[in-house]
Structure formats: structure tokens, C-alpha cells
Amino acid sequence: MLALLVGCAPDGRVIAEADAEPVASPVFVEAAPPYRQVDTTTQLDESRATSIVRATSRVAPAVVSVNVIRTERVQARSQWESFFLPPNAQRRSASFGSGVIVNPDGIIVTNHHVIQGADQIRVTLSDGRDLEAELVGTDAVADIAVLRVQGANIPVAPMGTSQGLMIGEWAVAIGNPLGNYVGDTQPTVTAGVISAVNRNIMPSSGEEGIYLGMIQTDASINPGNSGGPLINADGEVIGINASIISRSGGSEGLGFAIPIDRALRIVNDLLGYGEIRRAWVGVDVEPVEADVWGRTRGVRVSAVVAGSPGDRAGLEAGDRLLTANRRPLTGPLDFEGILLDLRAGDHLSVTVEGQSRANELEAAAYPSTTAERVRVLQDIELITVTPQIRAERALASERGAMIAGLSEESARQTGLRQGDVIVQINRIPIGSAEDLAALFGNLTGSGRMDVYFERNGGYNRRTLQWRR
Q1: How many domains are there within the chain?
Q2: For a pLDDT cut of 90, what percent of the chain falls above it?
Q3: pLDDT in tens, 113-168
Q4: Which entry of 98, 226, 251, 397 is annotated as an active-site residue?
Q5: Of the residues 95, 98, 143, 420, which is catalytic?
Q6: CATH number of the domain where residue 154 is located
Q7: Based on the domain organization, do 58 and 139 belong to the same domain?
Q8: Quick one: 355 and 402 in the same domain?
Q9: β-pair partners for 8
Q10: Does the annotation mark 347 as catalytic?
């Protein structure tokens, strides 16, 4: 240890004498030279502009914050609270998510769960503008919602594809995880890689829905990122951020995005037809037995609807399907994920165990969407239950008239819903939509009728008053 002997010089200065080894000369850090104005901005920008920076700059202007106002019913949490809460008490709450502009007409893609139950939707652009948003439509199955805003100079994100993604390539998640909690309207950027593709995600406790064929990434995705884009190193949107698997509620490197090809199909369906037009092949599958390691290979065909695309392709119950569109099948969710992206006219190639050649199917529109409509009581549309429609809707009734559409007013007055199958009026069985139309056409005067119908696999009865 260095010991110092301290004393005072004659002139009063403090002096020290060391009784150990000489102290090494101190090391000084050279100070930065005085600031000089040098025109090196361009050179610095070029040296720091990595591929992630360039990719982000292409997409970030088109990323928006989606702000939502909901009206929720307030539930008493205790008997004490129930004394003070009025009946049907409600409160307004605010939440937020993210979205991305995909069309110069102001079309925005976000998640269904971001805007579900919204009374009002307002979008904040990266330049700070607030625009009221119109809900074009949603697809709860795929967790996609489509919004429209009106404004000048709307930025649009470049679209890529989710086909051919490489495990390990760069992935950048952009969104607004802090929403309005920060004054800056610029989105947040996190980077990672593509961890996996075609992941099927089961819901966690308290959550709903199954995510099929998802892109997995370790780019940090937090709840406020929902609906924002996942982009590649070229600055192209390849997915819509949707969910995370987390024990803490925050990102743990297990983020998932909906493939952009699927999202854009939904956009086109909603803009072109006002509804989602998925395809039907008439084939149901079930899991096969697992091996001793708990692994499965392929799925077993459990049923094939007569006259369906699967039937015309020669598939039979008991066949073991190994691949579909060159993707291996390990369980029914893999097959459902492929069907989720099909549209009428698309081709589906499946390989069957023991067969040397693939079976080619041409997907068709769902039978209930192409069936002939019969209108009764001015605003109720009916279709006749056929074996194909029965299989499509998993109906218990072999015959009947299914409600394909009705107005809100008719639903309120009758208590009937779209999808109900009317099987009997009083004691008269209903075998088709035409049977029910003829019965209604012969009604005169006024009276009561008992309507028997199937709903959600069970049978119900409603008594209605009529007058003509």
C-alpha cells in the first residue's frame, strides 16, 4: 500500500514524500478538438444508414396509431358495489393499437381485436394529423380489420409478400406501443429475424381465436404494436403484427404476424364484395395417431361431401393426406391454415399416402353463398338446406329453410337470426325455402304461429303474431 508522509513547505505549501515505489505518470484522455462547422452530414448519413434504417424510412410514414373509444357495461365487483351502480351502468374507455396504410385511397389494415366493439375510431398519422376512420369491414377469423380515412397526401407502405420467407432473415416490427402516452407521433421500431413460418397458435387463457399459418419473429412486439407492419430488409410489408406469447405481458422474443398475402386478400374481398369470400373443398380431416415420441405425420380424411371438389378429385374417408400445396401436414390446423387462404377457383394439390401422384382440387365457393335466394316478408332471404349446405354449416337438420339474410328490424321483431334453419311452422314441416314462401304467401287475416328452428345445433321455438 502506498503510504504518504505529509508536511508543509516553508512557504506554506503542502508537500508529500512517498516511502514506496514512485507513482506512474497519470494518463490523460485527449479532449475532442473544438467544434468546427464541417459539411459532413451526407457522409455521416451514408455511413450510418444501415439496411434497417433504409427499410424503416420507406414504411414508417405510412404507419398510424389507431385510437378507439368503446362503451362498456360496468359489472359490480362486489355486493357492496351493486348497491351504488345503476342498472345497465356503462362507461366509456379508450384504447389504441397500430395500423398501416396499404392503398392511396386511405385504406388501412389493422387487427380485428384492436377495433372490436368500437364506437369511434380515430387514426393519427406519423405527421401528427388526426383523421376520423370509417370501418370498411372485419374478419374475426383472421383477426384483420380494414379502415378508410380521407385526407390529402396519404403515404402508402410498399407491399411485399410472405411467400418464400427465409428463416433468419431480418424482420422489423413498426408500431405505436405507447400510443398517446408520448407526445411524439413517430412510430417505434424494433428489429429481429424471421424465427419460423406457418406457425399455428392456440389461444392463451382468457383469449379467443386460433391463429393459423403465422410468421414468428423475435423482433419485440408489445400490445400497442398490434396491427402494425412487419417488414423485411427491403422495406416491404410482409405481415401484420398480431400477438405475442408472454408470461410477463411484454415481449419475450415470441411475436407473431399475419402473412400480408392473407391480409391483402381480405382487403380485396371487403372492398370488392363487402364480405369475405373463402373457398370450400368439402373435405373434413382429423388427427392421426401419434408415434411413441408424440409426433404425427399427416391427417386422416374423416368425411367427403358428395359432389364437392374433394369428391370430384377422388378423395375418400380414411385417406391419409401428407402434404397440401407442398406444405407438410402434421395436424388438422395445418390443413385449416391452408384452406384459410383459398378463394374460389384456386387449386389445391394434396398428396395421399400410398399414391404416386398428387390429387388436384379446384376450390369452390361455399354452397350457402351460391344457393338460390327466396325472399319472404320483404326483407328475409331464405335458402334451401341441401346435403352440401348441411355439411358446410354442420347442421343437424336434413331439410329446412335457412335464413341467409334479414334486416335488423326483422331480427328484432321476430327474434330470428341469420343462419337459423326453420324446420316447422305450427304442425307443418318445412322442407325448402319455397315451402316457407308458399306458406307465408297463403296467410290471411291475423293470428299466431309457432316457429320451430335449429340454432347452434339445438332446436328452439318462438311464437309470432302475424297480420295481413
Answers
A1: 3
A2: 61
A3: 999 988 899 999 988 899 999 999 999 999 999 999 999 999 999 999 999 999 99
A4: 226
A5: 143
A6: 2.40.10.120
A7: yes
A8: no
A9: 14
A10: no
